[in-house]
């Protein structure tokens, strides 16, 4: 994490020194009666300083609770409130164990019916064997902090590419110790008074064992109850059939930097440009991509704030009215 950590340190140094250097230059320019140039330097420095401080130091440390409602024609039974947490990237800049504990507490205050964890719990790109022991401990403690999550229908999760690069077995073990149901190309039926449903979790696309197997995973669904698919990457959505009520994904960080007029400069995978952030409807097939919490590569977020999501999944309102009129 030396690269991103160094960049964050430089950002702090710049935040402190830039106003001082600017003040010195303006004073020199004013002494030389170069008033227009002094004003220009002050305005330009102020704009750059404000944007830089916001993007590197402020926005990445915030947390937004995003409220979303999805209507799916293949969903049956009562509405379901789903809590989503993705891309925590523990041990990367801006995310430590204490921050995970705070977002766990924040999620619990929303009282979701079920919680889904969408992968990339480890920060950085290096395997565990090359990391210092304190960093290894921090990552695993960050994952184990999910034991504080509380939802009547449980906590379920998949792994992401950073977890595969780090040590997928160690991350999965920490998730299980935290009481999380880890789903890799496996579906589980969830019973509830408002109608049972299935959660089908797909393996990470960079898993050292096997990638996502959409058809095989859905083949294990044993009845007609609706299905929610979990995948870290949005890319497997191309294979998800209309039978699935909703697919949930992370990975993209909503581009992490989203410039006005220009848009997102970086796309995390081939299909992330098409499905970068938010809710998508592909001929009735529903996909929701969350921007997640942490940062990767650069310790920056701009117009892509860290988020947890409370997503309410329900039948379309018209279908509900028609169903109520059936004798």
Structural overview:
The chain is of the alpha/beta class and 327 residues long. It has 2 domains: 2-58; 64-321, Metallo-dependent phosphatases (Purple Acid Phosphatase, chain A, domain 2, 4-Layer Sandwich), CATH 3.60.21.10. It is 34% helix and 20% strand. It has helices at 2-31, 35-58, 97-110, 133-144, 161-177, 214-218, 317-325, and strands at 64-71, 80-85, 114-117, 155-157, 181-182, 186-190, 197-201, 227-230, 244-249, 258-259, 263-264, 278-282, 285-289, 307-314. The strands form 3 sheets. Strands 1-14-2-3-4-5 form a 6-stranded mixed β-sheet, covered by helices on one side. The protein has a 6-stranded mixed β-sheet with strand order 6-7-8-9-13-12, with no helix packed on it. Helix 1 (2-31) runs antiparallel to helix 2, helix 3 (97-110) packs parallel to helix 4 and helix 4 packs across helix 5. The longest helix has 30 residues, at 2-31. It starts with a helix and ends with a helix. The model is unreliable at 320-327 (pLDDT under 50).
Briefly, what is this?
This protein is an alpha/beta fold and 327 residues long.
Q: How would you name the oligomeric state of the polypeptide chains in this document?
A: single chain
Proportion of residues in helical segments: 25-40%
What does the radius of gyration come to? 22 Å
The CATH class assignment of the largest domain is Alpha Beta
By CATH's scheme, which homologous superfamily of the largest domain applies? Metallo-dependent phosphatases
Shape: elongated
Uncertain regions spanning at least 5 consecutive residues: 320-327
Count of helix runs: 7
> Which fold name is given in CATH as the topology of the largest domain?
Purple Acid Phosphatase, chain A, domain 2
Number of domains: 2
What is the CATH architecture descriptor of the largest domain? 4-Layer Sandwich
Order of helices and strands: HHEEHEHEHEEEHEEEEEEEH
